[in-house]
Amino acid sequence: MALYPTDSRKNDSIAYQETLNIFAGSLIYNDNRLETEKDTLLKLRDGSPEAFEKLFHAYGGKLYNFILKISSGDVYLAEEMVQNTFVRVWETRAFLNPDKSFISYLCTIARNKLVNEYEHRTVEYIYREYVQTFHPATENSTEKETDRNLLEELIDRLIEKLPPARKQVFILSRKEMLSTKEIAERLRISESTVQTQLSKAVSFMKEHLAK
Predict the structure, then answer these.
(1) Angle of CA points 188, 191, 193, to nearest 5°
(2) Could you list the residue range(s) of the whole structural domain that residue 206 is in?
(3) Fewer CB within 10 Å: N-end or C-end of the chain?
(4) How far does CA 45 lie from the centroid of its chain?
């Protein structure tokens, strides 16, 4: 799968919102079913495994199709994101709001995890490009580990050269492994600002590592 290009984040955000609207708009329930879903969410919030399984069966397929659409048809990634999203739902069940759209909640979690996965792949991509460029014949595992440690040190030095706000966002993402949403909430900035700062930080890294 291609990594997010720097200049496509805005378009990706628009596409995500349009896709979310399609999926959310297609879920039209009668009053009785809405009440049933609310009851199920309340049971999940109280720790019911049965309620969790019921919601997984009701929404797993829809979430899979949503991720498949915004990930350019990556089947394996979609399966992984569905599992990770529902794990997150279970871990944070105590904070569920049964009065809000559950499918929107699922799609938001999945989208944030997808962005994080792309960012992780970008760092891995930087590492592979570095090794192939400067140590193409490296096969020994010890040498590979040494190269990776050297790259980590170089990245740490480059982090110190980032503007303060960008540096803070990058550290929260890379060191503390926070999601885009969690970073935005902690710093009280928009998620799009977080994504822009991360994109610019990664571009800066790639540019200087190529020198």
Answers:
(1) 85
(2) 135-211
(3) C
(4) 23
| Predicted confidence (pLDDT) per residue in 117-161, tens digit | 766 666 656 656 555 555 555 455 555 555 566 667 777 888 889
Residue 42 CA to residue 46 CA, distance in Å, equals: 6
Express each pLDDT in 4-42 by its tens digit: 333 444 445 555 555 555 444 444 344 444 448 889 999
- pTM for this one? 0.49
**Same domain (yes/no): 92, 149:** no
On whether residue 119 sits in a domain, the answer given is: no
Q: Are residues 101 and 148 in the same domain?
A: no
Collapsed DSSP state (helix, strand, coil) of residue 129: helix
**Cα separations (Å) of 185 from 51, 56, 181, 190, 191?**
29, 27, 6, 8, 8
Q: Please report, rounded to a whole number, the percentage of residues in the chain having pLDDT higher than 90.
A: 25
Q: Is residue 121 part of a domain?
A: no
Tokens in use for 111? Answer: 């989208």
What distance in Å separates the CA atoms of residue 189 and residue 118, rounded to the nearest whole number? 21
The full DSSP string for 48-72 is: -HHHHHHHHHHHHHHHHHHHHHHTT
Query: Considering its fold, how many domains does the chain have in total?
Result: 2
Task: Measure the CA–CA gap between 209 and 100, rounded to whole angstroms.
Answer: 45
